[in-house]
């Protein structure tokens, strides 16, 4: 197979994976706390031939290679909900939740109470505080979450605040290397151990929206589609050229 076909095929494979990334971004445009992913590309130069019987130097061939993805960590817009259990994080911290697979991390602060009074995520995973799961009593009301994550309530007919726990806010040395696990959760991956975050603040009554720019992602999807189509046309032209050349060379003069 000639170099033009190989280079075109390598580009199409990369475009297909890029389309997957863009489509996932668009699918999560309304997912609370979602962070946009983008593809990384680099040039891959084919190694030259090294046999002694080649005359002259081998011509370098440049291929397209995707080296991975990176995450846009910028904060999404904060939307006021006036729901006391909606919490947005102003900063780089994550909430810690307990799952069947161990501790996981999320930016989705749309929380709720389960049937036993535990503070949980939408998926039902308990949100962890400094001393474990945070549990509220049936008579608790006027829930207040301070910027440092301390949760206080008024208990029954009392007028004195009662502390129910303090949210664990953690950050990572290299958050880019955290792994997405679905359901808006991350695992630490190679991002390092979770460290307490004392700089970020909690905003009660707000939700952090996705930072996906839907217009930009739609434009990128159109660009990827056009590029894929153009390369497909080029490959077809190359195939037709080979077919014509073989037919003409096969013609034996009468």
What's the short version?
This protein is of the alpha+beta class. It is built from two helices and 19 strands.
Describe what this molecule looks like in 3D.
The protein has two domains: 3-73 and 212-250, no CATH class; 78-208, no CATH class. The chain has helices at 3-27, 214-250; strands at residues 37-45, 62-71, 78-80, 87-90, 94-99, 102-106, 112-113, 119-120, 128-129, 132-133, 140-145, 150-155, 161-166, 169-171, 179-182, 185-187, 195-196, 201-204, 206-208. Strand 15 (179-182) and strand 16 form a beta hairpin. It has 254 residues and is an alpha+beta fold. 24% of the residues lie in helices and 32% in strands. The strands form eight sheets. Strands 6-5-14-17 form a four-stranded antiparallel sheet, with no helix packed on it. A three-stranded antiparallel sheet has the order 11-12-13, with no helix packed on it. Strands 1-2 form a two-stranded antiparallel ribbon. Helix 1 runs antiparallel to helix 2 (214-250). The protein has two helices and 19 strands. It is elongated.
């Amino acid at each position: 197979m000639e170099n033009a076909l190989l280079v075109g095929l390598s580009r199409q494979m990369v475009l297909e994976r890029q389309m997957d990334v863009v489509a996932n971004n668009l699918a999560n445009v309304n997912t609370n706390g979602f962070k946009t992913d983008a593809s990384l590309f680099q040039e891959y130069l084919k190694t030259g031939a090294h046999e002694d019987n080649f005359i002259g130097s081998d011509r370098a061939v440049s291929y397209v290679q995707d080296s991975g993805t990176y995450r846009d960590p910028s904060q999404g817009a904060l939307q006021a909900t006036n729901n006391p259990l909606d919490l947005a994080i102003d900063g780089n911290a994550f909430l810690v939740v307990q799952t069947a697979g161990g501790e996981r991390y999320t930016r989705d602060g749309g929380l709720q109470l389960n049937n036993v009074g535990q503070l949980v995520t939408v998926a039902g995973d308990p949100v962890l505080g400094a001393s474990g799961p945070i549990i509220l009593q049936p008579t608790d009301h006027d829930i207040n979450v301070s910027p440092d994550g301390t949760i206080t309530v008024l208990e029954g007919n009392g007028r004195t605040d009662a502390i129910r726990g303090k949210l664990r806010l953690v950050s990572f040395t290299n958050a880019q290397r955290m792994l997405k696990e679905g359901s808006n959760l991350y695992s630490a991956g190679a991002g390092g151990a979770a460290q307490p975050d004392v700089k970020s603040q909690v905003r009660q009554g707000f939700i952090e929206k996705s930072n996906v720019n839907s217009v930009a992602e739609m434009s990128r999807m159109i660009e990827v589609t056009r590029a894929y189509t153009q390369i497909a046309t080029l490959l077809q032209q190359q195939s037709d050229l080979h077919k014509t050349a073989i037919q003409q060379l096969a013609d034996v003069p009468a």
